[in-house]
C-alpha cells in the first residue's frame, strides 16, 4: 500500500518518569512509558509535508495516590531525526478539545533546534543537543549511539526507565533516531494537569507514530490520533472514528485551529485499552483505498480496522486498458451457435433442392 506523502499533521503523547532512585512499575502511553503518573488522555495530531513531519502532542496527567512527594511527570519520545520543539500558539491551545467536539458521534437515528536535520552517526555516550524551558516543560533533545548510556543518562536526570526498555531503546539507537525528553519544570499539584500542547518537527520521508516503547508498560494503551492529510488514511490495528473533509467541520473550529489542519482531509484513528504485549512496533499511517467519508453515530461509533482498511487501492487493481477482443473462453461459447447456424443453412438448402 502506498505511503502517505500528502500534507498532514502528527502528534504523539508520551510517558512519565519519576525522580526516584528505584523505578516504579511502568504505566503505558501511546509512544512511551509512564512512571509515578497516570495519563488520563492521550491525543495527537500528525502532519507531513513531503520530507518533514510534525507532531503536536497533548498530555493530561494525574498523579497516583501512592506517588512519591518529589516526583514530577516526564516524557521520552523517540523521533527519526534531530527535532525542533516548540509550544503551539496560545490561540491553538484548545486544538484537541475542538477536534474532539467536531468529530464526536452524531445522535443515532435509533438513539531553536535543528528543525529536521538528517540523523548523523553518533558514538558512545549521550549528546545533549539542547535543553530549555518551554512554558511549564523542561525539554531536552538527545542523541546517543549506546542504549545503555542513554538509559543511564535518563536515570540520572529523573527519567527512571526500566531495564525492559533498553532493548527497545537500542532498536531506535541502531536506526539513528533522536530522543526528546520532556518533564514538568516543577512538581505538579495533586490531581489532573493539562498543559498547552507541544509541537515536535523533524525530518522524515513518511509518516510514523512511535508506539513501540509502550509495549514495556503494564497499563493498557489508549490513544486518539488525528491525521490531517490530502486523503483518508488507515493504520494497522487502529479503528476509524471519523473520516471527512476539513471543510465539512470548519464551522465547528476556530480560525487558529483550522490553520493547524494543513491537509484537506481529516481522519480520526483510535486504539482503546490495548494490551501492551500486543504492541509489535511503531505505527505507519497509509493512504486508504478511497476517500469514502465516515461520520460516526452513537449507534455505530467506528469502523473496524479490518475490511475497509485492508482493501486494495484503486491503482493496485489490474484493469485491461486495451480491448483486443473477447478472451478465448468467450470464443469457445460461440462454437455451438456457429454450428447451429451452419446446420440451419444446410437444411434450408436441402429443402430448396427438393422443391426445385
Q: Could you describe the 3D structure shown?
A:
Strand 8 (126-134) and strand 9 (137-144) form a beta hairpin. This protein is an alpha+beta fold and 356 residues long. The chain contains six helices and 18 strands. The longest helix is centred in the C-terminal third of the chain and has 28 residues, at 328-355. The N and C termini lie far apart (73 Å). It has helices spanning 95-102, 147-156, 166-174, 246-249, 255-260, 328-355; strands spanning 9-10, 27-29, 32-34, 38-48, 52-62, 74-79, 84-87, 126-134, 137-144, 178-184, 192-194, 198-203, 221-229, 233-234, 239-245, 265-274, 286-287, 294-295. Residues 1-28, 188-192 and 319-325 have low confidence and may be disordered. Strands 1, 4, 5, 7, 11, 12, 13, 15, 16 and 18 form a ten-stranded mixed beta sheet that branches. The protein has a four-stranded antiparallel beta sheet with strand order 6-10-9-8. The protein has one domain.
Concise account of the structure shown:
The protein has 356 residues and is an alpha+beta fold.
**Domains counted in the coordinates: how many?**
1
Rg result: 28 Å
Count of helical stretches: 6
Strands, total number: 18
